[in-house]
């Protein structure tokens, strides 16, 4: 799977890093990514989330409040390094 | 705020809208966030979320055909109005653009709507026959009505293919065909010898070309299978989760 993440690559990498701490809803995910990467907008966040989900690196789950959250897949857990190099693991 | 979210494609909103609105409620967007959302909406249109791979370039062909058809149609009528004496050569662009309009329809679409396309072609043929009958009011009315039905029908089929919703399709039809016709034809009849004044052509036929440019752009962005392409194979959420 050689599809690249384009200009969402950096944000995608920080999302994967943030999700190593466990499932996050998008609000917390945005806060975490902003802590790691400075100013990230909601449009960029969702562009990256949609791509990571499409690539099966993250998947939706529900948190304690029944709200949708995201967590790493097995493949996604090994991915940040590859994403940082501009690709995704096969 | 929901107005900005409506810029995103329908399928994207089906998937993310609820949580996206919750996020915006909890973290009210700044001006730069709003700009970022507009960029995100453009990206979501260009890269449909349900597709596993980028849209093959061949899927852009129907959209580009429609786009070129609309541009040629518009250019022909603009030239005809402003450079009347020298623009007769450009009149040939009109049938070519109509041919491109039809060519933009086949593909995966042909199997599902082949009959409608055949009916639209039949109506166009009938219009040509009626237009060549000796002039009388009934034949003129029948010719004009058939012509409008054919123009509107082909545009509607293209709009369906571009996944424009029913209300959007009606808006397009009214703006591109019905409204200009309602305004233009009585005006033309009132003028008597319309060959002396082609200004009404701009009002009646130019919107139709612009509508095709709009549909073509949308079709090119979304992509649509041609006759030689296999259908797009979206990843089902269940399959992805498994």
Q: What does this protein look like?
A:
The complex is a heterodimer of chains A (90) and B (242). Chain A has a single domain, classed as Winged helix-like DNA-binding domain superfamily/Winged helix DNA-binding domain (Arc Repressor Mutant, subunit A), CATH 1.10.10. Chain A has 5 helices and 2 strands; from the N terminus they run H-H-H-E-E-H-H. Chain A has helices at 9-19, 26-37, 42-54, 74-77, 80-84; strands spanning 58-62, 68-72. Chain A has a two-stranded antiparallel sheet. The mean pLDDT of chain A is 80. With 242 residues, chain B is an all-alpha fold. Chain B folds into 2 domains: 2-54, no CATH class; 57-222. Residues 232-242 of chain B have low confidence and may be disordered. Chains A and B meet through helix 2 and helix 3 of A and helix 2 and helix 3 of B.
Keywords, separated by commas or semicolons:
heterodimer; A: 90 residues; mainly alpha; Arc Repressor Mutant, subunit A; 5 helices; 11% strand; globular; B: 242 residues; 10 helices; 72% helix
């Amino acid at each position: 799977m050689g599809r690249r993440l384009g200009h969402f690559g950096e944000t995608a990498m920080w999302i994967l890093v943030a999700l190593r701490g466990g499932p996050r809803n998008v609000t917390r995910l945005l806060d975490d990514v902003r802590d790691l990467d400075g100013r990230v907008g909601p449009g960029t966040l969702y562009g990256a989330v949609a791509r990571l989900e499409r690539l099966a690196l993250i998947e939706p789950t529900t948190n304690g409040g029944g709200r949708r959250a995201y967590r790493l897949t097995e493949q996604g857990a090994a991915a940040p390094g590859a994403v940082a190099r501009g690709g995704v693991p096969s | 705020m929901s107005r900005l979210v409506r810029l995103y494609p329908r399928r994207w909103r089906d998937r993310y809208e609820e949580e996206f609105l919750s996020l915006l409620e909890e973290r009210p967007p700044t001006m730069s966030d709003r700009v970022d959302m507009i960029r995100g909406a453009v990206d979501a249109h260009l890269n449909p979320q349900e597709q596993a791979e980028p849209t093959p370039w061949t899927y852009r062909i129907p959209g580009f055909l429609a786009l070129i058809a609309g541009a040629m149609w518009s250019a022909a009528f603009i030239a005809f109005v402003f450079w009347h004496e020298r623009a007769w050569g450009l009149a040939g662009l009109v049938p070519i653009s109509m041919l491109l309009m039809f060519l933009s329809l086949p593909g995966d679409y042909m199997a599902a709507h082949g009959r409608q396309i055949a009916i639209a072609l039949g109506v166009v043929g009938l219009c040509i026959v009626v237009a060549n009958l000796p002039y009388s009011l009934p034949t003129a009315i029948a010719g004009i009505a058939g012509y409008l039905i054919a123009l509107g029908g082909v545009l509607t089929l293209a709009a369906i293919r571009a996944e424009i919703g029913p209300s959007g399709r009606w808006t397009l039809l009214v703006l591109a065909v019905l409204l200009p016709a309602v305004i233009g034809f009585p005006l033309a009849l009132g003028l008597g010898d319309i060959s002396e004044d082609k200004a009404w052509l701009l009002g009646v036929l130019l919107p139709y070309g612009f509508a095709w440019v709009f549909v073509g752009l949308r079709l090119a962005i979304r992509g649509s299978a041609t006759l030689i392409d296999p259908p797009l194979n979206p990843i089902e959420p269940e399959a992805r989760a498994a």
